[in-house]
Amino acid sequence: xxxxxxxxxxxxxxxxxxxxxxxxLNLSPNIDRQIVILTDDVSYPSNKPPLSLGIKFRQxxxxxMAYAFLKGIxxxxxxxxxxxxxxxLSFLTLDNFINIISNYGxxxxxxxxxxxxxxxxxxxxxLKDKIAKVxxxxxxxxxxxxxxxxxxxxxxxxxxxxxxxxxxxxxxNPIDIKKIKCLSRDPVQDExxxxxxxxxxxxxxxxxxxxxxxxxxxxxSKVREQINCRLVIRGNGELKPYLQxxxxxxxxxxxxxxxxxxxxxxxxxxxxxxxxxxxxxxxxPYALTETMACGCPTISTNCKYGPQEILGNNEYGILVPxxxxxxxxxxDPLTAEEIFLAESIxxxxxxxxxxxxxxxxxxxxxxxxxLMKCINKYEKCLYExxxxx
Length: 389
Hints:
The chain is an alpha/beta fold. The protein has helices at 15-26, 61-83, 93-102, 119-122, 127-139, 151-159, 177-184, 213-226, 240-249, 266-269, 286-293, 307-311, 336-350, 352-366, 371-387, and strands at residues 2-8, 31-37, 51-52, 87-90, 110-115, 145-148, 168-170, 200-204, 230-234, 256-259, 274-277, 298-301, 318-320.
């Protein structure tokens, strides 16, 4: 029996947390796995109750992070000493730091870290970001294996952070296509727009700068001039007041709604006409692969990283130039990139045959990220790492 411990800040939140959950639930019975979380936050399921280190994050965050870092190392070392797992896999940056230091010099446990974000974008502003970037460069090479969720993330790790190429392996995030298809059939009863014969453009994601939804709203203003359609943005976040104000400035209050985040996004996506992503950066966006599993035609900014790797050169969806990320008002003229996005949406809305073609190609591409295909690749990595001892 192979023993695997998985360290992650919590089991509530985004893509990395979902990967941890899927691995916990679906890895082979020959792999005994245990999730360890820094906090007590849990919303995703796991094969057995996670072990919690009981860390609580408070303000000021920089001191809280330092406390979590030190306590995490102390507590995780004790767990490693007690259980002596063959593998220790971590998912987020803080988790990776704790994992590497806790297991440094430990010959019983192979240290595996994973990168689910464009680190160049995460560490780009403050002094603490610059310090963290230096730590990444020095620590990540001490891991036995570094998992990148996309080729773009792998290239960045090698080129910008000088990680040994032989240690970096690309493993895509898994999606449960069977579950998505089942959930996508649920009726939409809480929003009448999805039961009317008016095209809907949908965006799903947190209302934060990374997702760039203000660019989509501004582009939609041009789309709405030519086509009677609606925009649905589904998610919560700090930018909602700004985005709502932008909608008001553009006189789009009757054509744009914000839906709160709920458990099943797929019933909305499957009934939308077009999915549009305006992200400024990603790593390998779940939103795109899951949307494609719903068969919804997709448009995405060609940001780093992931969209081009998923959509190809407009083979499986439409790529548009990256947005500039500047936060505009409704009175500001559209940028060239926003106009390009608007024209691409108009093209998809006008031509049903094009939408149908992309719908078929979307389902085809989504199958490459199917749950057990990706899980099997994780298992193969563990086997190969063990054989290279």
